[in-house]
Design goal:
The structure is a single chain. The protein is mainly alpha-helical. It contains 17 helices and 2 strands. A two-stranded antiparallel ribbon has the order 1-2. It is globular, with a radius of gyration of 19 Å. 39% of the residues are buried.
Length: 330
């Protein structure tokens, strides 16, 4: 392992982002404490995993991404984001066989109320399912389960790649990252918190899909910047024989292109009638809240930049020490 310190400058994401940045959801403090206590009750983590979970500050992400959510919906969404971080952290330490079994159980418990599994993870998922099913509209829950199935399969596939020491090329990595990031699962909760049901025809429309996936990819590409292993940065460095800085610069270019596409295609969305158009407009506006909120969260939590998050925010300079790189590769 090289003893060299690596420094690079982040793209100016905040200048490139054309969206408004919202204040956090007013229910953050109260619901955050409740959701943390809920997760702790099921004893799914060891001490090290608990510490990593605390760094993630998933409730803050929820507050910034869903500033419009009511109290009940916000608490439920906090619980779900915590579930995602639970699976993310647990699967990081698993071989491919265990990850496949855990991911399959995660989905099946959520999808099938009669599915039986005795793990603590299954118990917390079942508790969540019993809570959300009381308020979930059918169309939302259908979209949510579809996204969740893709997500769990992608997390299991990521474990297989990790075990094999395989790094995908860019054309194969991007679609995998769209799924294993869980961004699409999180976007499903836009319908839930807005209390709307978009017809399947909306999600099948090519212009809407362009807007939707531009938002998904903006989140995925910006979330790569705090790490250098098993992500878009690594893929770009290998595929283009690029330095970390050159990869970072490329991510900034792609983010700007995605933003331009989002705004252009947003203005080209067809009409489906006044009522549906209103709901589509609300949904698309909520996508902008997610992209902007994710950016703010990335620098306010310590998940990506550790204790140097304020330095990264103010100077855009990131310093990676050899130990940081070793820890990521463990």
């Amino acid at each position: 392992m090289s003893s060299a310190v690596i420094q690079y400058t982040l793209p100016d994401f905040f200048s490139l982002c054309a969206f408004d940045f919202s204040k956090p959801n007013p229910h953050l403090q109260e619901c955050s404490a409740e959701s943390k206590a809920w997760v702790a009750r099921f004893n799914v983590f060891n001490d090290k995993q608990n510490a990593i979970m605390e760094q993630s500050q998933s409730e803050l992400l929820c507050a910034l991404a869903y500033p419009y959510a009511g109290r009940e919906g916000f608490r439920t969404t906090c619980d779900f984001l915590n579930l995602l971080f639970v699976l993310d952290h647990l699967s990081d330490d698993m071989n491919s066989k265990d990850a496949n079994g855990t991911c399959e159980a995660f989905y099946q418990v959520m999808a099938d109320p009669d599915f039986k599994h005795e793990s603590n993870l299954a118990k917390i998922i079942l508790d969540f399912r019993q809570a959300i099913i009381r308020s979930a509209k059918p169309q939302f829950f259908k979209h949510f389960l579809s996204d969740l199935k893709r997500y769990t399969k992608a997390v299991a596939h990521e474990a297989e790649l990790r075990e094999a020491g395989q790094v995908l090329d860019l054309i194969n990595f991007v679609p995998l990252r769209r799924e294993n990031s869980a961004v699409r699962c999180c976007f499903a909760f836009i319908e839930y918190n807005l209390d709307i049901e978009l017809p399947d025809a909306i999600f099948d429309d090519p212009i809407f899909q362009s807007v939707y996936f531009a938002a998904v990819d903006m989140v995925c590409w910006t979330n790569a910047m705090g790490h250098t292993s098993n992500n878009i940065v690594t893929v770009l460095m290998r595929e283009k024989d690029a330095s970390v800085q050159e990869a970072a610069d490329c991510i900034g270019v792609v983010f700007e292109q995605l933003m331009t596409r989002f705004l252009k295609d947003k203005s080209r969305l067809p009409s489906w009638g006044a009522d549906i158009d209103r709901d589509v407009a609300l949904y698309v506006e909520a996508l902008t809240r997610w992209v902007g909120g994710n950016l703010v969260w990335s620098f306010q939590c310590s998940r990506y930049f550790g204790t140097a998050n304020n330095v990264a925010l103010l100077t855009r300079l990131v310093t990676l020490y050899p130990k940081d790189i070793e820890d990521e590769q463990e």
